[in-house]
Amino acid sequence: MPEVRLIGPNGEQVGVVAIDQAIRMAEEVGLDLVEIAPDAQPPVCKVMDFGKYKYEIAQKARLARKNQTHVIVKEMKMRPKIDTHDYETKKSHIERFLLGGDKVKVTMMFRGREQARPDTGFRVLQKLSEDVAAIATVEFAPKLDGRNMVMVLAPTKRKGSN
CA-based diameter of the chain, in Å? Predict the structure, then answer.
């Protein structure tokens, strides 16, 4: 006769009993016999209300989904010969994104002869990372990718934490 380790309706350890006896004990109390750990030797079963158990598991899953964060990556494109006013405007947009809790992918686009001088774009990205250092960290350093140079900034503070 197969046996199971039984946990009572109030969480107390009943011990190792035969399956038919465990089923009888559950029916006497008007509850269900639920297998908790099928891989254990012997398997672990608990006397409980199965409907309530399913509801509690669904509540935990819903709470976990509610608390997870959705990381959004915003993108800002620039050119190496950017004007100071345009730079300040784009920097303020980047700061707003970072303070909102989003990551920012800054793309430096090179055209024509600018491709021969990637160091100019690198310097602009370095200056940007220094300007937003108080609210962001560089997640991916500036890296040349074809005609573009890409850098990713991540906020130092997460959304919702004060």
Answer: 86
* CATH number attached to the domain at 3-65: 3.10.20.80
73-155: in CATH 3.90.370.10: no
Q: Are 108 and 138 in contact (CB under 8 A)?
A: no
- The pLDDT assigned to 126 comes to 92
Distance in angstroms between the alpha carbons of the first and the last residue of the chain: 60
CB 125 within 8 A of CB 153: no
pLDDT in tens, 40-67: 888 999 999 989 888 988 999 998 888 7
- Helix ranges (DSSP H) in the chain: 19-29, 50-67, 84-99, 118-131
Residues 103, 97: Cα–Cα separation, whole Å: 7
pTM for the full predicted model: 0.56
Q: What are 113-116's contacts with CB under 8 Å, separation 24+?
A: 114/79, 114/80, 114/81, 115/147
Boundaries of every domain in the chain: 3-65, 73-155
Contact (Cβ atoms closer than 8 angstroms) between residue 4 and residue 22: yes
Encode burial over 103-138: b for 16+ CB neighbours within 10 A, e otherwise: bbebbbebeeebeeebeebbebbeebbeebeeebeb
